[in-house]
Amino acid sequence: MSTAAFSAGMVQWAAIQVALARKKYDIKYPKMYEGTDDSVFDCVQRFADCLYMRGGREIPSLGATVARVQGLVYAFRMQV
Question: Where are the alpha helices (DSSP H) in the chain?
Fold first, then answer.
């Protein structure tokens, strides 16, 4: 149960990060990626995409929690 709540919160956090990055880098909808090689927005968007695709349902509860924490660490390191 706590893994599901943590996963839902992390997906929500990723969606907020993409929305903030869209505003910061002036990326208008429906454009999904900026398209340049050194785009920070593309990194944030790709992280969110990977997070949405990896549901964690096929991994046992502890494994899913560890995967989510690793995803958070990865996301924070990308934004530095």
Answer: 2-25, 40-53, 61-79
